[in-house]
Structure formats: structure tokens, C-alpha cells
Amino acid sequence: MPRRSAVQFILTKVVACYIAMAVVLLGGLIIWSYQQVVAHRADMTAQLQTSVVEAITQAPGNEQQALQWLTLGIQLSESDSVAFQSIALLGEDGHVVFAWPSSVELAATASSAFNLLDLQNSSFTLAVTYSDTLLEHVFKHDLLPVIALLVGQLMVLMLLLNYLVKRGIYRTFSSFMRELSMVNLRQPAALQADSFLGQFKEYRQVLVGVNRVILSLAKSREQLAESNQGLERHIHAKTAALEERNEELLILNKQLSIIANTDSLTQVYNRTRFDVLFKEHVTLSKRRATPLAILLVDLDDFKKVNDRFGHQTGDHVLKHAAHVIQREIGAEGVVARWGGEEFAVLLPYFDLAKAEEQAETLRAAIAKARFEEQAIKITTSIGVAQLGEQETAGQLLKRADDALYDAKGLGRNRVIIASLEQSHTQLELADGEFIEVLDVASEPTQGEPEVSEKLPT
Ligand SMILES: Nc1nc2c(ncn2[C@@H]2O[C@H](COP(=O)(O)OP(=O)(O)OP(=O)(O)O)[C@@H](O)[C@H]2O)c(=O)[nH]1
To answer: Name one GO cellular component term (predicted).
Structure first.
């Protein structure tokens, strides 16, 4: 019967607590009461002494009568809790002058039961006994009612507890135990089925275990949070390093792209880049129906520069000439080194007249320039062509190259325009045929600029 055991257990504990409290209370009461009685008895005795001395002093020679009056007073005060049991007045030689009550044996006055009291300035001595010993008195008069009261209370308490346990506490405990069973991690069989206390202990152990698990989980969570923070810091640092590296790579990429697209000597676009841009501009021009012109610029008699001033000076002149071309064209066109001492200039939105004007300005600027310390003068021949409506990039290039060839043939240092009629005339021929002509013409020949074989036809 585990339930009854539990009830008994609780009852026992409560009663034990109550008894312990009662014992402490009684102990305190005994000490307090004892002190009170001692003080009271001392008071009474002192009063008796004073009264007897006064009686003897007021009625000398008639002590017996005075003492009889005193005895009456004593009898009246017998109801006092510490009253005297007997009183004897002893003469100088120790004989009993007066004894109350009369039954007190004279011999008894000498026994140790009597307390001998001195009477001030008198030859008499007072011998008294008290009705109880001090402890007896304390127990009889003070403790007995208290003990009775406590026992009564205890009984009432036990009855009350028994009632409460049966009515309410048992139900509360039952539901508490049911809740506990929800967290039971052990096999039910392992519990002591016949002992509620055993079960309670088991559950308490389980709770302690659960508590430990919760604490260790909280600790693990803290550790996890710390490691996460460390990981985040690490990731941030790595990300920052990666971003930095990425930026470096982007810069390097840009530099690489510039290197790949730039002519290393003259720092203008190289032929590869020009081919791409040329194709794009031709496509755009056709799509938007906007004009597009090209200049092929070739330095005249450059071989002579090399021969006379050396190849290195020739390099410097080439570089400077490219700079002049780039300066003159500005942002309006695309300048590229076509190869050797020849440059190509792409002029989007330039019609033939405007392109011719630009070519003339360019030719004049180079003719005017003085290169190197030796103030070398050079001239240029320029072939100009505008993209025809039906023309391909290759066909445009061919016409510009023809114009340049003409400029050379006519004595150099001049601008020759490739007429649009020429382009139309060529287009009137079969397209396939022209392409074949272009391919043949584009093969590099001595003294002639190369025509890109990569360009789209
Ligand atoms: N210094 C230097 N010379 C170059 C470079 N590329 C080509 N040349 C020279 O340019 C000269 C081209 O000679 P040619 O094809 O006969 O042309 P040209 O002397 O300019 O005569 P025309 O074009 O007919 O006016 C050659 O001497 C090449 O060595 C270069 O990068 N640096």
C-alpha cells in the first residue's frame, strides 16, 4: 500500500517537527519558570524575615502572640504557590520558641529540611520549610498545564492531518506523482512498486538526472555559441581576404586584358582587338543605319628612318607617331596598330567628307611634328573609306587599302578617298566572286598592308 505509507511518512515527519518544537518550548518554559519561582520565593522569605523582625521589635516579650498573628497571615497566604509548609522560631540556645503548625517536631528543626534564616539584630533564628521543592513547584504549577495543552494540541493536529491527508493532500500528491511519471526515464519495473517513498526517491533521482542533462545541454549550447562565433570570425576574416584577393585578381585581369589588347610598343589597340571592334562597329552601323569610316594610315619611307637612325630610334618615332594619331583622333574614334608602321583608325558616325577632313588634319599634324632629338620629319599616306550599305567589313577594308595604295602610288604624304561607287560596282558583281577576290588580295604582299583574314566577310 504505497499511498498509506506515504501518508504515514508525512504524518510522522509533521508530528516529529511538532514534538521537537514542543520540547524546545518546554525547555525554555522550565528555565523561565524556575527563575521566576526562585525570585518569588526569595521575595516571600525576605518579607517573612522583615515581618518577624518587625513583630519582635514592636512587641518585645510577647513574641508568641506576635508570631501567632504572623502565622495567621501566613495561613492566609497559603494559597500562594510558593507558600511555606512550616515555620519555627528558634531561641538563642536553639530551643523552639514557636512552631507552626504545632505538629512540627521540635527535633525536626535541626534537620537539613529546614532553611535557617537570620533575623536582623535579634537573638532569634527562623527555620522554615516550603510546601514543594522548586522543581516540583515548577512542574506542578507551570509545566503540567502546558504539557496538557501541548498533548491536546498534538492530538488535534494529528486528527486534522489525518483528515487533510485523506481528503486533499493525497490527491495533490497523486497528481504530482503522475506528472513525475511523465519524465520517468527508467523501466517502471525497476521502481519499488510497493513503496511510495521508494518511488519518490526514484523520481527525485530521475529529476536530478534530468537537471544534470539540462545543465550539460545549456553548457554545450554555450560552447556551441562560442565556437559559432569563432567560426563566424574566421569566415569573416577569410571572406575579407578572399574579397581582397578578388579585387587584386580583378585588377590583374584588367591589366591582363589591357596587355592582351594593347600594342606593347605604341600603347594603342593591337590588331586582335581592332578586328573585334571593327566587326562590332560594322554590325552596329548597319543595325542603326549610321555612317562608319575607316582610315588606313601608313608612315612613308619608314625604312629610311630605320636605316638612317637605327631601329631603336625607329621604335621611338613609331611610338611618338601613334601618340600624335591618338591625340588627333581623341575619343571620337578607335586607333590601332595595324602592323609594322601602319595604323588603322575606325571612325563611327563619320561620313566620307568628315572622315576625309579628319584624315587631312591627321596627315598635317604628323607632317608638322618633329620626332626625336634629330627632329626627324615623317609624312603619312592615308586611305579613307566609308562603309557601304551592302558592304562587308572585308570589302570596306579592301577599298581603304586600295586608296592607301593609290596614295603611295601618287607620291605619298596625301589622303585618298575610296569612292562609294567603287563599292557599289563591286557589289554588282557576284558576292561569292568578290569574296574570293578579297581573299586573294588579302594575302600579304611585299610593300602592301596585310588585310585581316580573320575579319568577317
Ligand atoms: N623600328 C621599327 N621598324 C619597323 C617596325 N615594324 C616595321 N618596321 C619597319 O618599317 C619598314 C617598312 O618598310 P616598307 O614596307 O618598305 O615601307 P616604307 O619604307 O615605309 O615605304 P612605304 O611604305 O612604301 O612608304 C621596314 O624597314 C620595317 O623594318 C617596328 O616595330 N619598329
So the answer is: plasma membrane
pLDDT over 60 (residue 235): yes
The residues pairing with 115 across neighbouring beta strands, listed in sequence order, are: 128
- Whole-number Å distance, alpha carbon 91 to ligand 1 midpoint, is 170
Q: Which of 213, 233, 261 is the last residue of a domain?
A: 261
Residues 301 and 324 in one domain: yes
Give which of 352, 365, 355 is closest to 333, Cα–Cα: 355
Residue 143 counted as domain residue: no
Look up residue 454 and give its amino acid: K
CA–CA gap between residue 389 and residue 395 (Å, rounded): 11
Known catalytic membership, residue 328: no
Q: What pTM was computed for the model?
A: 0.49
Q: Which of 328, 341, 342, 356 is catalytic?
A: 341
> Which residue puts its alpha carbon closest to atom 28 of ligand 1?
303
Winning range, highest mean pLDDT, from 79-88, 102-111, 151-160, 396-405: 396-405
Q: What is the pLDDT of residue 181?
A: 59
Q: What is the pLDDT of residue 90?
A: 77
Q: Which of 299, 300, 302, 315 is the pocket-test mutation for ligand 1 (most atoms within 8 Å of CB)?
A: 302
pLDDT for position 454 = 30
Residue 207 phi/psi, 5-degree rounding, is -60, -40
